[in-house]
Amino acid sequence: MISVGVIGYGYWGPNLVRNFVECPDTRAAMVADRRADRLAEAQRRFPGIDVTTDSAALIEHPGIDAVVVATPVSTHFDLALAALQAGKHVFVEKPLAHSSALAARLVEEAAARNLVLMVDHTFVYTPAVRKIRELMQASELGDVYYYDSVRINLGLFQHDVNVLWDLAVHDLSVMDYVLDQQPIAVSATGVSHVVGEPENVGYMTMFFEGNLIAHVHANWLAPVKMRRTLIGGSRRMIVFDDLESSEKVKVYDRGISLNPSPEDVQQMLIGYRAGDMWVPHLPVTEALQNAVRHFAECIDQSLTPTTDGAAGLRLVRLLEAASESIASRGATVEIVVS
Amino acid sequence: MISVGVIGYGYWGPNLVRNFVECPDTRAAMVADRRADRLAEAQRRFPGIDVTTDSAALIEHPGIDAVVVATPVSTHFDLALAALQAGKHVFVEKPLAHSSALAARLVEEAAARNLVLMVDHTFVYTPAVRKIRELMQASELGDVYYYDSVRINLGLFQHDVNVLWDLAVHDLSVMDYVLDQQPIAVSATGVSHVVGEPENVGYMTMFFEGNLIAHVHANWLAPVKMRRTLIGGSRRMIVFDDLESSEKVKVYDRGISLNPSPEDVQQMLIGYRAGDMWVPHLPVTEALQNAVRHFAECIDQSLTPTTDGAAGLRLVRLLEAASESIASRGATVEIVVS
Amino acid sequence: MISVGVIGYGYWGPNLVRNFVECPDTRAAMVADRRADRLAEAQRRFPGIDVTTDSAALIEHPGIDAVVVATPVSTHFDLALAALQAGKHVFVEKPLAHSSALAARLVEEAAARNLVLMVDHTFVYTPAVRKIRELMQASELGDVYYYDSVRINLGLFQHDVNVLWDLAVHDLSVMDYVLDQQPIAVSATGVSHVVGEPENVGYMTMFFEGNLIAHVHANWLAPVKMRRTLIGGSRRMIVFDDLESSEKVKVYDRGISLNPSPEDVQQMLIGYRAGDMWVPHLPVTEALQNAVRHFAECIDQSLTPTTDGAAGLRLVRLLEAASESIASRGATVEIVVS
Amino acid sequence: MISVGVIGYGYWGPNLVRNFVECPDTRAAMVADRRADRLAEAQRRFPGIDVTTDSAALIEHPGIDAVVVATPVSTHFDLALAALQAGKHVFVEKPLAHSSALAARLVEEAAARNLVLMVDHTFVYTPAVRKIRELMQASELGDVYYYDSVRINLGLFQHDVNVLWDLAVHDLSVMDYVLDQQPIAVSATGVSHVVGEPENVGYMTMFFEGNLIAHVHANWLAPVKMRRTLIGGSRRMIVFDDLESSEKVKVYDRGISLNPSPEDVQQMLIGYRAGDMWVPHLPVTEALQNAVRHFAECIDQSLTPTTDGAAGLRLVRLLEAASESIASRGATVEIVVS
Hints:
The structure is a homotetramer. By secondary structure, chain A is of the alpha/beta class. Chain A has nine helices and 15 strands.
């Protein structure tokens, strides 16, 4: 039984505690938050849990095996590093850290100490995304042409990161999981509508070797909620709509067929294919529970998590490049993997 | 009664001829197309219409008062110029021409000859877009924050222009009509998935003075059809979904409210407003018929069309900048109005 | 080439004339309507067509091979009978006649004279309904449990028939085509909200041998348009939504599985199956064109139409029973096939 | 603080316990269920709660002020009566009892003892239904013409009641709350597809004085989930779709206008009105929490609940009539209020 301490009992914290309670291999032993009213709420909902306003006390507590960091992004690095240095396994909310240098430092520390460092890229643990990966691993889509994602709503403005770091990170995590290529350059644009605050609307194009292109649109100020991804391939195409209750993943047997024009060998005759559409049945499981069990399993069996520190670092590199590109209104920023 | 000759009887041509037939102030007198089978089809459907494979003959024909150009983009300039020089009013399909220099040349020629030059920005003549403009003119949205448009489907690949010139031009025409500001710079990305063909996926950000931002996503290779625009303002927001049969325009009383934080004057407390949603009733009229009648009225009364050559030129400038930006993977291109 | 005369140029008449024009085996020679303005409209749209206000003249005209009856229901019988007696093939709008006795009389007359009598059950000629029949003929659904249809909108009130005769007749025609059983009894309810007019809301249950049940809900006074049919079977279920543009037919691999309870052999343990969903690709063809070509083919080759007079009669019997049941607020009316 | 005991910890029980925990005026003190594993689950989730397999012990326990009955329908009467006779306030799941005679007996017992008897017609406590009632009380719809409801899914088959008693009861409860008239007669049809089990598909028409009509379609064996109500009036119409996340209630300014025909005074000219559509903003509150607080308030202040025993009895009378009508395949059954 792995004893877990959760730092941060804000929006996501109660879900984390509940899932560590429900996981048969873990127990939620302690919650830390600076706000007394949040701790009172935690105790009301989870009688018997220990609480503290001192995150260092939680990290250092000898009865705690693993630390969950669910605080604002700018504090991830300090807390995660302290926990690793205290010999604790770490489960960090996304994004892993607020710079790639700091993210890389966490990856090194965890490796050096043989500790599990897992980033909560929750969507990777949904049945829908697992099914998409399964289809793509089996080359059902043929050559992958594009990955296009929209994640917008009237959402909570963050003060320390912009909307790409807050929302697009989900899309990047799915993309990282289902594609077998990494972006080599980024062009991004965005704007803030509140003076002094980070961008609340953002657009981000990612370039790959070859003609694959990816794009994410994120917006905290939209009148409607949308969470929709299109993945286009030469043989089939996928629409993943996370707001659909029972038809989240649709697989379309659609595309184009190419033939050299008889009149002009340099011009293609482009035909269209339109076939059946298919909605695979998905099991009903809670993604966060899957993630929590995977974390416990990685600790027990010394495995590398699917969404390990390296995955977290890859995403932070992309977000960092996007911020740099936004500052120059879209100029390409190459992704340098040092 | 204005006598009209239509050059190009491809996909859109039959709609044009039908609408000039149905308009009480015009008659469709002649059709030109290089393809004999298309001319036969025109005569089968519109008995009594004259046909020719020679567009020059149509342009020069003394019985023709106005020429409609519905051919591939790269031929717009030559045909429209010839028609203007022959003293005919001209109705051109969008985009006006394949370069801003050529578009400007057409604008000058029409002005010099006091002829009507109208671009078929059809969406401007839909009841939905007219209602949106009416709402925006009345400042119903407050400060306008963003304009975001998606226009994708499994569509006809064009060989002479990319997907932004073919599809995004519709969105640009609506934007040009409903916003009272012009973009000052563009950043665009895109890719082609067919060797030797223009980009079939494109993304285009437009910057304005202040913090207004606009974005268009166009794609010829999508598994599903979408035509959806979001317009966000400080007071209200609009969702315009052209595929909705009876609820095309939705007006949301949603947004954020800003208050300086009591603790930190430099940080805003951002609150959320969520009020009613409202779908205005729209009359059922055919946009192209509205456009055709407007063209006839402009000829009869020597008026400047809502979508005149100048509007066509503004759009071509944006598309040209987008193409330039795509070539440098997103680098900003300023819009220079000479 | 079959020469066709169309009686009635109201809502549906122009579609009929257009389709007889477009069909390569027929020509639309003449239109009859009592209203001069409708005849003028027909001539404007179809130059060269003959028109008359005298339907008898059309029926008797020696140049006419087949008569199309597209008038109010209460006039179908007289016109169709006169046409048959004049030796003409007949294509009648649905429903065939306003009583089963009259419908039977038409069936007899056509049979006696070896003429084609076809009822315009248009939906039977849609790619969607053909696909559904194909699936059901192949027993893809297993045992058929229920057929449930909703057809509502803010629609044209009819003065001579109620909403079931006007709208539910479409659902009955599909049901008649895809099921291999006939209803044996009807229970129906409905009400009129306009004094002196027929019922504008109607509900109709049909019983079959065994435990198959069918139900249709029709309404002329609904705020939204719906055209949706559910067909439930022991192995699979179908949702047919005619308002969907590209996903009209959905096939669900869902249902229940039955096992005797180990504790109580008289009680079943009912389990649930939820599998994939599948949307077959459908060709894009116009149903009315398919119907018109089928009519021409039946005339040419002396075939019995899929929707012959007998099918029309079966539907009228059901509608007659429904009217009788409505009058007694739902009491069962047996279907007697004399 | 009202101390509550909950009998039945099946599908709905955990929601009830949670809501009595969260309500500031109540505490969930005890749970009774025959199944030891369900009791263990209750204790795991709600540490410190008392459990028992003996419902009589819970009812008789002096520390319990109010008893919640969340067991199969056929046991409601015995448990509720015992609780009332033990002097406890009672909150019963819908439907109140399995016959109107027994339901009436409970109403009498509660009245005689001055105890609160409330039926869990949860939908009455949703913001959506409250808004609908508010609109109807303000005569926003004009004369009410029809109430049409569909509630279908692939749902849990019940063994002791048919699908109308299980699902349609929700629609009847909403109807009872928003209309100011009571049905005077019922015609219903339905069928069972599992030998020996109650009807799993049911249709139910209700007649009122005047020309108001109501209809409910309920089905446990549908491939898709639908929960949609149409309410038609002379001035406006409502569509209530409970599966919509943010647009549950739509108010349509649509209808017909009637004018006597100039030619024939007995025939109406029926015109159509189509105006705006409006979606009122609804607060986000949990209906069951509203119900639980209302129950507590009624106990504290000796008030009659909105969904009291009398409301529960009215619904049972309708369901009883429906069952009787189903047995005779739709024959009208009058509602007799003794």
